[in-house]
Amino acid sequence: MRFGVLGALGVWSADGETVAVGGPQLRALLAMLLLNVGQTVGVPRLVEGLYGRQVPSGAAHALQSQVSRLRRRLGAAGETGDLLQFGPAGYRLLVDPDDVDVHRFERLAGEGRHVLAAGDHGGAARLLGEALGLWRGPPDWHTCPGPGRSRWRRRPSSEGG
Description:
By secondary structure, the chain is mostly helical. It is built from six helices and four strands.
């Protein structure tokens, strides 16, 4: 499977077919997990990202329902393993970071900067061009609703900002 957040949120099966993710809450949940692929995201952070600071009663149960729906959607797309795991600290999406466009972009851009610093202008142009080619349009910031949107919109970079 491949996942995209560099543009409208997108999911594609192994054979390239578009996977329907679902409504805004499910898309927001997936976006939060994709931005933190391989890392555990705590339930409080996910709940705040979905509902804002005014958390409705039953939000944790609603999150469990959303996770269950997301698992079914990914499973219906032919994914046989459990990509979405739950542990004591929260939920974690287990996919190769290179299968998520934003993480692939960051890797390629970093490699491009390194190659440019080494003086290989052609190699840098190729890597940076490949990174830029991953963008499919402006990100759909409506995917992450509520006041928590700014947290997902401005991710801190490893370069400090």
